[in-house]
Write a structure and sequence with these properties.
Helices cover about 15% and strands about 30% of the residues. The protein has one domain: Jelly Rolls (Sandwich). It is of the alpha+beta class. The chain is built from 2 helices and 6 strands. It has a 3-stranded antiparallel sheet with strand order 4-1-6, with no helix packed on it. It has a 3-stranded antiparallel sheet with strand order 3-2-5, covered by helices on one side.
Length: about 130
């Protein structure tokens, strides 16, 4: 079961990467990057899009809030390892050296290039 999501961040800054994984979409496979640093700004993640994020800690706590349209289901959980693409994107954006640390859970997901997706693009989707 997939979910639509809205993401928000409090108390820090979050760099978010979205990936269109809808087969047949004119923008299939494209990556979109955003920065959230204001609690009044939200990112909408529709079904058929994967998302990942990186915190740019300032030393204080970070709170990420999700609003979803259905309950979490462990059996339908999927993941991607965005590390390589995210590292490249962030180095281009920030233009300085840094160490990207991926948590133990996410490091074991397959890379984007290894994913076959079941999502199909419907031209009349909003």
């Amino acid at each position: 079961m997939t979910r639509q999501k809205y993401l928000d961040v409090f108390l820090d800054k979050l760099s978010i990467l979205l990936w269109n994984k809808k087969n047949g979409s004119p923008t299939y496979g494209e990556l979109y990057g955003f920065v959230l640093n204001n609690p009044d700004n939200w990112i909408y993640v529709p079904r058929g899009f994967a998302h990942g994020y990186v915190t740019m800690p300032s030393g204080g706590p970070i709170i990420v809030e999700y609003l979803v349209d259905n309950e979490y289901n462990k059996e339908s959980e999927r993941g991607l390892n965005f590390a390589e693409k995210l590292n490249k994107l962030l180095k281009e954006e920030i233009k300085e050296e840094f160490e990207l640390i991926v948590n133990d859970r996410d490091i074991h997901w397959p890379d984007i290039s290894e994913i076959n997706t079941e999502f199909k693009y419907e031209p009349d989707e909003q």
